């Protein structure tokens, strides 16, 4: 059971909630803060004070006063009118993450919602009822208004949900679990949808998958080095210490660990003096991606524990401030950066694939074919990889550099962070496919060389891969192999063996 406090949620805990379906609850202290904040809202309504979103309309309608008897209608109208998302739904895990993140933000006690609202979010998480939320329609400022409105609908007994593997009517799933719809009162609709939880939830899932992919890319690259009789000297720690980037140093250490004991690697001058950049510069390129991952992790963990709605309530209601914490710029930039960094893992992987299949660049059978000429072997798999990296280049164009005014120019600068997070996720998916192709080619190459000469670490990767993707003895429908390799990487490719090599990595420059 993960205890939400509003302040301490980590990516590791989110991983357990998403992939292990860990249940969630709230801390006692957070409930006290929620109750105090709610009393402040009720006092504002009672005194008929002019406070944005509580006794006024929204956006450009912020100067329209609302009669106290209409506060419930105001909140329901807000949800209905803002639930205008379009396109395919977010992955179900993103919906689950949105529920958790919205609950965690409200538990900070600056939003003024009732306890029952947050309890409803937690019930949905713990029973596996996940709202169907269209991916398109958010500008990433004023909150993820459209996606979060679709998140709220099922709390009210409306809309659709994913439940036990099916897409179904929300009220039916709720009835099965004994959950009753709630009615929103003053400020609650606004508090639920004024936030960055769509882009952040998409960012959390993207980061968790990207981190795993980054580790896997090193093991696959190590097999490629063996398949090409790569030069091990380039990973010598002295080379990387004198540059000074900790992530580069650590990648080089992991590469040395993965290749330790290999009889398929070479030393400088044995076959050639130096390798191409796609082999020699793995620590520099992959290390830079790890720098980005570390940056993104920091920003996500801040945002996961942030109060992002508007207005925010302080000092028991004495201070109610309309600010801009709903603006997604920090996550927008982080997601664009993440997409670019992961696209580079695909770019360098595709170049390694080319070196594995191109007979002008190696001494292996052309295109790793079992019968060159009659059988094409891996020729078109490289085409596929090239297509994916080219697609990534268009997806990596930063979404955050765009803005378009909305709400009659009241909301005149927006982040487009949700678009950035969606594109980053697509880039991760494409990159996994490119690395799946590299794994197929690398396994073929090392077995042509002789698997007995492999390092123990890479050989264990080969053995796991061969349980799913057989040696290419003749041409077959390789699309099936790519899907199999992709599923292996997503679900069964362990990174524990890779991670163990980073322990004790030297990060200080030698004197």
Short description:
It contains 19 helices and nine strands. It has helices at about 10-20, 30-45, 70-80, 90-105, 115-125, 145-150, 170-175, 190-195, 195-225, 235-240, 245-260, 275-280, 280-305, 330-355, 380-395, 415-450, 455-465, 480-490, 495-500; strands at about 1-5, 25, 85-90, 130, 135, 160-165, 165-170, 310-315, 320.
Strand content: 5-15%
> How many angstroms separate the termini?
48 Å
Tell me the number of strands: 9
Q: What's the order of the H and E elements?
A: EHEHHEHHEEHEEHHHHHHHEEHHHHHH
Instruction: Give the overall shape, derived from the CA principal axes.
Output: elongated
CATH architecture of the largest domain: Up-down Bundle
Helix content: 40-55%
Describe the structure.
With 511 residues, the chain is mainly alpha-helical. It has 2 domains: 2-195, Fumarase/aspartase (N-terminal domain) (Fumarase C, Chain B, domain 1, Orthogonal Bundle); 204-401 and 416-502, Fumarase/aspartase (Central domain) (Fumarase C, Chain A, domain 2, Up-down Bundle), CATH 1.20.200.10. The protein is 54% helix and 6% strand. The chain has 19 helices and 9 strands. The strands form 4 sheets. Strands 4-6-7 form a 3-stranded antiparallel beta sheet. Strands 1-2 form a two-stranded parallel sheet. α1 (11-19) links the parallel β1 (2-4) and β2. The two termini are 48 Å apart. The model has no long low-confidence stretch (mean pLDDT 92). InterPro entries: Aromatic_Lyase, Fumarase/histidase_N, HutH, L-Aspartase-like, Phe/His_NH3-lyase_AS. The modification 2,3-didehydroalanine (Ser) is found at residue 142. Pathway: Amino-acid degradation; L-histidine degradation into L-glutamate; N-formimidoyl-L-glutamate from L-histidine: step 1/3. One of its GO terms (biological process) is L-histidine catabolic process to glutamate and formate.
